[in-house]
Amino acid sequence: AQTVTQSQPEMSVQEAETVTLSCTYDTSENNYYLFWYKQPPSRQMILVIRQEAYKQQNATENRFSVNFQKAAKSFSLKISDSQLGDTAMYFCAFISGGSNYKLTFGKGTLLTVNP
Amino acid sequence: DVKVTQSSRYLVKRTGEKVFLECVQDMDHENMFWYRQDPGLGLRLIYFSYDVKMKEKGDIPEGYSVSREKKERFSLILESASTNQTSMYLCASSTEGQGANEQYFGPGTRLTVT
Q1: Is B34 on the interface with A (CB under 8 A)?
Q2: Cβ distance A40 to A61 under 8 Å?
Q3: B88: closest CA among B52, B49, B43, B29?
């Protein structure tokens, strides 16, 4: 069974600075997808970024980028120029390439951006 | 934009009551999901459905059942609510296909069982 580990329950960063959230996963599969989801306080969870395991290039979405290390089974999220609106719970998630439904989530990291 | 709605944001029920949580999506998605979110535990899959009238158990199905009579609607049923079912319940939907498909989430229902 796949597992996803987020070792940082809480983090904080000053506005405009850069922060990195860690995620490791365990799988024996070679074809899979990884995601970072964001859940702002009292608001809906939304997708931040996704990475296909077969792609060597790290995914980027504006201020959000990932450092995908397949051999190390590591998938960290870097947020540049942090904004107050980035304050949220962030979840790392894994899904097998052969499945269209079974997302496995980490326990989450609560990120607070301070003014 | 995909919209996933849930019938209630907050719900308070008594132990032993039958509870219905409703979820509706407007994007003709094949897959729908019910998760439970608890502090320190992340999201855990209760049930999912990949088609009308089709369902499969997730990781924690005990004490729950589901119903999907129409493609856009997926209901979670607590047959006899217990205090350990106090939690945040999230519904999600996604289109059919390979694993990269994004799941779209509803706003959640915070259920308290007293």
Answers
A1: no
A2: no
A3: B43
User: Which chain B residues have a beta carbon less than 8 Å from that of A41?
Assistant: none
Cβ contact, residue pair A100, B43, below 8 Å: no
Mutate to test the interface with B, among A29, A38, A39, A44 (most CBs of B within 10 A): A44
* Secondary structure of residue A72 in the 3-state scheme: coil
pLDDT tens-digit readout, A72-101: 999 999 999 999 999 999 999 998 877 657
Condensed to tens digits (0 to 9), the pLDDT of residues B13-59 reads 999 999 999 999 998 999 999 999 998 888 999 999 988 989 999 99
Which amino acid type is present at position B50? Y
Q: Which two tokens stand for residue A29?
A: 């599969």
